[in-house]
Amino acid sequence: MASADHPVALLTGTNRGSGRSIARELHARGYRIFSLNRTLTGEEWLHEERCDLADPEQIRGGVARVLATAGRLNVCVSNAVDRVLDPIADMRWEDWDRSLAVNLSANFHLTQAVLPALRSGDGLIVFMGSHAATRYFEGGAAYSAAKAALSAFVETLLMEERNNGVRACLVSPGAIANLDGDVDPHKMTTHAVAKAVVSIIADFPRDLLVGEMEIRPAALPERPVTGIDRLLHV
């Protein structure tokens, strides 16, 4: 059980999926957990602040309330996403704008809000990226564009803030069984993803900086096409 003397972690999107698993794993390691969630679970241990990440004012207000309660911050995990998987020709502009607001711009606003506290606490901020940043697919324009830009953002943040005592890391996962009831053996479980993320936070030496961690499912649904045979599938 975490106490007031234990390290503090702020996460976005802890109401389900990977975010919830990461929060649970950190909590088990003794971290005090605070959350920015659009949909609240009502579970006391998550210390939730209602926050729509598409609204910069809600992000900054939520972070301010967390810091006022916690008094400090050691770790921030930017996890929440909003997926729009429509073809470009059919996508509503409102959905495009919201996707970039949540999946990209929210990371900027969250980072600015937490940086002073992380600088004071020799802190770490972990951003959840995606294979979609480099592996494009039909219907993924908004999601892939945001995740590709996020990669550039995190690398720039790392260069700017490492001498201020702030470490930044991008975790780029492949397919995750994020939805309730998803037991596809060709996807990573949220528990496995949480173990990988928390290893960066809690297990690695403080003088070692992990700039990016790429993780993927161990099992493939079918034998991959390799070598010259790829020419048959273009």
Automatic annotation (TrEMBL):
Q: What is this protein called?
A: Short-chain dehydrogenase
> Record keywords: Oxidoreductase included?
yes
- Transmembrane residue ranges: none
Keyword terms of this UniProt record: Oxidoreductase
Entries under Gene3D superfamilies matching the protein:
NAD(P)-binding Rossmann-like Domain
Q: Which protein family is it in?
A: Belongs to the short-chain dehydrogenases/reductases (SDR) family.
GO MF, one term, reads:
oxidoreductase activity
The record's PANTHER family line, in alphabetical order, gives: OXIDOREDUCTASE, SHORT-CHAIN DEHYDROGENASE/REDUCTASE FAMILY (AFU_ORTHOLOGUE AFUA_5G02870), SHORT-CHAIN DEHYDROGENASE_REDUCTASE FAMILY PROTEIN
Question: Cross-referenced InterPro entries, in alphabetical order?
Answer: NAD(P)-bd_dom_sf, SDR_fam
Q: Which Pfam families match?
A: adh_short (PF00106)
